[in-house]
Specification:
Elements: H1 14-33, H2 39-45, H3 55-67, H4 71-78, H5 80-100, H6 104-117, H7 120-132, H8 135-149, H9 151-167, H10 170-190, H11 205-217, H12 219-249, H13 256-281, H14 283-305, H15 312-338, H16 345-369, H17 376-396
Helix pairs in contact: 1-7, 1-8, 1-9, 1-10, 3-6, 3-16, 4-5, 4-16, 5-6, 5-7, 5-10, 7-16, 8-13, 8-15, 9-10, 9-13, 11-16, 12-15, 12-16, 12-17, 13-14, 13-15, 14-15, 14-17
Length: 420
């Protein structure tokens, strides 16, 4: 993937780009969600007690967060395609390594390494989209990408469950490797280089630190980076503890893939809706309303979780509604945060993704570790994260929500509509 797609090929259209970016990002999601039904068997086979089984997920999250600091700078210097190639190769190789391991500590080390090495699969797609569009158009495309991407969390637990029943949990890692090869082949054939020559950056520590500092310490952006880290940290907490919640708290382990998928449906619907409305109403207005909605749902979740015998239907409905609000928040917060950085999109995506993933991974692990046989710790955490996210967004917006801003044309050359 070190050279652009052949000139005699039909150019990559918007629909194909959406699906391809979603598939690249979904490799990370599949590596997490397909493992969820197998956590119990992994824990039994490798003698991992209590909540330690969650570390199979948490180690990958943490590795992805730390690793995200690095690929953006290389993508800004050498291009998007080479960085994707390295991430895809590492994904395939380390998936196969995880399939053969027999020691739990070594499995966790490999999962951490896999997250580190494959972080570019989360960082580079956002930079590619920012290379092409900005403002509310970027938010619309990212919503469509997220909508397609989210089919993986819905289907992955069921796929993992079937693979595990047919061939054991190790075969899930083999499935990851096969999917990595297929998506990598598609990207190698069809994906052109999107980095413009005039936007190439030097590989110098001072340049990298300056670019990353710009991406993190811009007041208009930082609230949206930290805000999304907080709300998605609570989502990671749900992912970490979902197998225990559904299997142990509600006693529905045999239906885990169905219940987990039904909770994610709300996020898919939200991203589809967002793609239709964001250019009309603006990313700020839509995401601010969703954040307030998440707080109200969080209050209701806490009330429901505090009941002596919480009904499963309430848990599913409220989680699906929370996921829907996260669907409106995710693509919009990410697009707003990236808006000022068209000339350093790779470094900005790296720094922002690293902060989001690292913070989210630590929060998610802490929330998952608080699992006490009920959904109360999760409900308290989701509400608290949403409230803190509102506070930091208010900082970025100087105390005023629902304003629609129009960026300078210099930040989005060639595009007429860059409002956010």
């Amino acid at each position: 993937m070190t050279s652009p797609a052949k000139a005699d090929k039909a150019p990559l259209g918007e629909r194909e780009m959406i699906v391809l970016m979603a598939m690249l990002m979904s490799l990370q999601a599949f590596g997490i969600d397909a493992m969820l039904p197998a956590l119990g068997e992994i824990a039994t086979e490798m003698s991992a007690g209590g909540n330690d089984r969650q570390l199979v997920i948490g180690a990958y999250f943490l590795g992805s967060g730390i690793g995200a600091f690095f690929p953006g700078a290389f993508a800004d210097r050498f291009g998007r395609r080479p960085v994707l190639a390295v991430g895809l190769a590492a994904y395939v190789f380390l998936s196969l390594a995880c399939a053969m391991v027999t020691n739990y500590d070594l499995l966790l080390a490999l999962r951490l390494t896999q997250g580190l090495a494959c972080a570019g699969l989360s960082v580079v797609p956002a930079a590619i989209v920012r290379d092409k569009v900005g403002g509310d158009r970027m938010a619309r495309l990212m919503s469509l990408i997220m909508m397609t991407f989210l089919m993986v969390p819905i289907l992955a637990p069921a796929i993992g469950h079937v693979i595990m029943k047919l061939a054991g949990w190790r075969a899930i890692f083999g499935g990851m490797a096969v999917i990595g090869v297929l998506v990598g082949t598609w990207a190698w054939i069809r994906l052109p280089e999107t980095l413009q020559e005039e936007n190439r950056q030097d590989i110098k520590v001072s340049t990298i630190l300056r670019n990353m500092g710009s991406a993190l310490f811009n007041r208009g952006s930082i609230g949206y980076v930290v805000g999304s880290a907080l709300v998605f940290g609570s989502l990671f907490g749900f992912l970490n503890s979902s197998q225990q919640l559904i299997s142990e708290t509600f006693g529905m382990g045999d239906y885990f893939p169905l219940i987990f998928g039904s909770a994610v449906v709300g996020m898919v619907a939200a991203n589809f809706t967002n793609s239709r409305i964001v250019e009309k109403f603006g990313a700020r207005r839509v995401s601010h309303a969703a954040l307030l909605g998440l707080i109200l749902i969080g209050i209701t979740q806490y009330w429901s979780a505090s009941q002596p015998d919480q009904p499963l239907y309430q848990f599913i409905i409220l989680m699906s509604l929370s996921m829907a609000m996260l669907g409106f928040i995710g693509a919009n917060f990410g697009s707003i945060a990236m808006q000022p950085f068209v000339h350093i999109a790779g470094a900005a995506s790296s720094a922002q993704t690293a902060l989001r993933m690292s913070t989210g991974a630590i929060l998610g692990a802490a929330i998952g570790n608080m699992y006490d046989g009920t959904s109360r710790p999760l409900a308290i955490s989701m509400l608290s994260c949403a409230l803190f996210a509102l506070a930091i967004v208010l900082f970025s917006e100087r105390g005023k929500l629902f304003r629609r801003r129009v960026t300078s044309a210099d930040n989005d050359p060639g595009l007429k509509n860059t409002s956010a």
